[in-house]
Specification:
The complex is a heterodimer of chains A (253) and B (267). Helices cover 30% and strands 26% of the residues of chain A. With 253 residues, chain A is α/β, with parallel strands linked by helices. Chain A has a domain at 1-76 and 187-253: 3-Layer(aba) Sandwich (Rossmann fold). The longest helix of chain A has 18 residues, at 161-178. Chain A is built from 8 helices and 11 strands. By secondary structure, chain B is mainly alpha-helical. Chain B has one domain: Orthogonal Bundle (ABC transporter involved in vitamin B12 uptake, BtuC), CATH 1.10.3470. Chain B has helices at 4-29, 33-52, 57-78, 83-104, 112-117, 125-154, 156-161, 166-188, 193-207, 211-236, 240-266. In chain B, helix 1 (4-29) packs parallel to helix 6, helix 1 (4-29) runs antiparallel to helix 8 and helix 1 packs across helix 9 (193-207). The longest helix of chain B has 30 residues, at 125-154. Chain B is globular and about 55 Å long. The N and C termini of chain B lie far apart (51 Å). The chains are: A alpha/beta (253), B mainly alpha (267). Chains A and B meet through strand 5 of A and helix 6, helix 7 and helix 10 of B.
Amino acid sequence: MSRNKMDSNQNILVKLNNAGFCLNSKWLVKGVSLQVEKRKIVTLIGPNGSGKSTTAKIALGIYKKIDGTVEKYTNKVGYVPQKISIDWTLPLRVNDFMVLTENLNKETIDEALSLTGVIHLKDKSLGDLSGGEFQRVLLARAISKKPELLVLDEPVQGVDYTGEIALYKLIKKITDELNCGILLISHDLHTVMSATDHVVCLNGHVCCSGSPMDVAKNNEYKALFGEQASEILSRYEHRHDHIHTDEGEIKKN
Amino acid sequence: MFDDFFIRALVAGVGVAFVTGPLGCFVIWRRLSYFGDTLAHSALLGVTLAFTMEFNIALSVFIISSLIALTLIQLQKRTNLPGDALLGLLAHSSLAVGLVVIGFLTFIRFDIMGLLFGDILAVTVNDLLIIWIGGALILLILKLIWKPLFASTVNYELAEAEGLNPERAKAIFTILMAALIAISIKMIGLLLITGMLIIPAAMARNISTSPQSMVIYSIIGGLLAVILGLFSSLEFNTSSGPSIITAALLLFLLSLFRIKQSIKLKN
């Protein structure tokens, strides 16, 4: 992660330049360029296995041996991973989990837990939570440390429908209040289109990117998500001008 | 009232228990019991080298155990063998080499039983200094790396993403483990050190609800095990290591009743 002092845009938090990650000689994602700025929500969409989480992990610096470069301009990061395997044999209450990476005072912890609606679970053991409750705790933990960059990998999975809408509203509000930038991964195209500043459509590489409207009009996006892309899309057809080999290479038809 | 050697053993054991308590919790949380075993087995090689070259035993054990730990990390990167196979390979080959070297050391009287199972008679004032100063240093460093180490134990990627440098914490923790084995080998013996790490911590897990309380119960369990074990060792003329571990096991069995009770309460 190099810090480019010459960069005139002070608002950039993280910038990927032609980044890619190769695991066991298979490219998980390749040639991704994007940037997240303050007060902006950048959303990654794409089918399963298209490299969304990988891209997020590249941006976070979890993957180190990468192709291309990552420029990171902040160390205040909050992360909600897609999958989290916590060993439940560890005695861990919600309160202990909240201060996992940073010491916070009681007010800050309570405020974050209240915002995501799980303050009543504060003294419960993490292993006793339901999937949706745990997801809310994960989000509370990420926002409680008032990060400059939030990386949310499917942050509302398993949350009930009303809760989902409320949490997306909260995420939008956080960008304004905390003055932070968000890199969001979501399958909910409806939300993506209404709340996002910039959309990157991935399928092992960047299929298309731009404002939600631009992307919705894009042919490759339509090919990926079906013709009725303006509606809430539950199914997507996978028609392409290219196919993906097992090695993650792209072959033109 | 007590013979002088017994007071020394007690002070030494108490010092060791303060360190094995918190480290033992991490050994359980990070599933490192076989790693602890491997380091302990390699300590025999360290002891024999110390005798051959007339070098300080604790320092020699510390160096050899650290080297074995670093070798393990390198082997994990460069071979396709599973971790437990590599641990077994290093544990038994270093134990075997250590025993072979002892075979050549016919010129010194060597109490191998004391080495394997601990010998309270062997604790000198010098050893007490090593245990208490070394132990204090280990605990101080553990306190400094607690945040990144604990966060990466819970979830490695979260710790890495939020800038806590878990790799460095893991490397430092490995060295702390080697240091603990170096200071406690005379008391407990190399075959039983891992027991002293795991059993009080396992007992603590049964009765605690937070990481902090588990560490505290683990220390208390270790202290009780040392005191009970050493008194019975004096009473029944048994080796100090096995007596301490047996006491720890009894405490663990007692803690199982607590679990039964809490399960009953839930139903």
